[in-house]
Design brief:
Blueprint: H1 2-7, H2 16-22, H3 24-52, H4 55-82, H5 94-110, H6 119-129, H7 148-156, H8 165-179
Helix pairs in contact: 3-4, 3-5, 3-6, 4-5, 5-6
Length: 189
């Protein structure tokens, strides 16, 4: 909803970026919010374990808590960068958006909980923003040039009297079109 409100402002330029902003970006933001929430939960859980565990595990839990805090900081930075009201969207820079999607992917892989439920949401954003689109080139049929020789053979025929005058004029017009020079003398006289 916030993305839609941003695009309705007078400063917003319409274009391809708007499609990405309204389509796949909300999916990406949902994944990011879910990752941040799971990281908050893991941080709180680790903090609770610090009070209960023996001092042998305190060093390991402290290291885990530091990693989780750094990851949470990264998630918050990404949220601020990608939120709909962010100034980063004003430039309509698709390459910057692609880089941000890759950072969210890295963030999601490091979240200390299961993010499998968010994979389909993330794939929507990834495919639309980052993945290279493979365009199928429509195979065109070969140009039929077999009958062109027949036209020139008719034009070179020394006995044009076999044709009616209208057909002869049509053939002359075709010859002029094929030669590309309207001032050129026609072969048939």
């Amino acid at each position: 909803m916030a993305c839609l409100k941003e695009t309705q402002s007078s400063e917003w330029r319409q274009g391809y970026y708007s499609l990405l902003f309204l389509g796949p970006l909300p999916h990406l933001l949902v994944c990011l919010e879910r990752g941040i929430a799971l990281t908050h939960t893991a941080k709180a859980k680790t903090k609770g374990l610090l009070n209960k565990e023996s001092h042998e595990r305190l060093e390991e839990l402290g290291r885990q808590r530091s990693e989780i805090a750094a990851l949470l900081k990264k998630g918050m930075k990404l949220r601020k960068q990608l939120e709909p009201s962010s100034s980063a969207h004003c430039a309509h820079d698709i390459d910057a958006l692609k880089r941000a999607v890759m950072e969210v992917k890295e963030f999601m892989q490091r979240v200390p909980a299961n993010m499998q439920d968010m994979q389909s949401e993330f794939q929507v954003a990834y495919k639309a923003i980052v993945a290279e689109k493979k365009r199928k080139l429509k195979e065109r049929p070969a140009l039929n040039v077999e009958d062109i020789d027949d036209i020139f053979a008719v034009l070179d025929d020394p006995a044009p009297s076999l044709f009616r005058s209208q057909e002869l004029q049509e053939l002359r017009a075709i010859e002029q079109c094929l030669s590309g020079d309207p001032d050129r003398e026609p072969i048939l006289e």
